[in-house]
Fold:
Amino acid sequence: MTTDDIDEAIDWKGEPVDCGACASRALLEKGKCQIKRACVLDRYARRIDRFFDWNPDLANDYVTHPHFEVRAIAAKHADIFRLPPLLKDSEETVRWNAARRLPKRMILDMRTDPHREVRIRIANLLDDVELAPMRKDSDYYVRLVVARRIAAPLLAEMMHDEEVEVRRVVARRIPNNWLPGMMNDPEATVRHEIAQRVSPDLLVRFRDDEDWRVRYEVARRVAEDQIGELVQDPDDLVREAAQARLSQSVQIQEWSI
Structure:
């Protein structure tokens, strides 16, 4: 048994649904709406959604409805030219549903929307230069989305972001010649990302790093004559990697004789 079978039809004000007071009541006889299933007055969003699935041509009439769920769902179906005013709606769901259907040039102001969820979704729609102003957004997850999507040459301002996860993404994407600028990052996970990308001649600078994962990368990739004391490293994996490299080097030399 579903919710549709057992609950009473209640409108968004908490009152029983009154089909006689509905502006679209004529649809009932035509089978274009149905109490507790497809109803624009109902408090359940899925029933409102179903109403507009059945009657998309009526969406324009409901974009200014007092109930935000109705406005938000109507925005999915309304004519494009009716959507710009909804970008200033008091409810973030309405603003987003309008923004996702409009051209990018019309939603640029929403990069500073007061609601983080809207800004996150806007960041997922924009590209490169359009995203640049969002590199310093107050919300870390917005910046994380920007770091993942913006063109790599535009990441310079994010190399020292206050959020570790943002810097990790930046470390994976910046041009190779920028990598030295993040080698002194205070977070080991960020340094590990850098260690996996820098050339062996730069990687040796991590030989005394406090984090074993970074030293392991050094032991795995630097030239054999630069492995140094890693053969006696306190971490088992680092020590074994260093010793294996040296043993392999010795075997190669013996074979070449």
In short: The two ends are 81 Å apart (CA to CA). Residues 236-256 form the longest helix (21 residues).
